[in-house]
Amino acid sequence: MSDWVGFCGGEDRLLLCAALRSVDPRAALEFVGSADALRRSLLEAAPTELGALVGPAVNGVSSVNLAAAIARDGNARSVVLVERGVTGSLRSRAARAGVDVVLDLESVGAASDGGRPAAPAAPARGPASVEGPRAPVVVFCSGRGGVGKTSVVATAAAHAASWGLEVCALDLDLACGNLFSCFGLPGGSDLARIGAASDLSCGVVDSLRASVCPGLSVMGPCGLPEASELASVRAGELISTLSTLCDLVLVDTSPTFTDAVAQAAQLADRLVIVSDGGPGTPAALARTSGLAVRLGVARTRIARLENRANPRERANLALCRAEVGLETARVFRAFEGGFEAEDLLASGRALDLVESGSPFSESVATALAQMLEELGSLPDVDQARRAAQGAAGRRRFGLLGKRREAR
Ligand SMILES: Nc1ncnc2c1ncn2[C@@H]1O[C@H](COP(=O)(O)OP(=O)(O)OP(=O)(O)O)[C@@H](O)[C@H]1O
Ligand SMILES: [Mg+2]
Question: Of all residues in the chain, what percent carry a pLDDT higher than 90?
Answer without folding.
Answer: 50
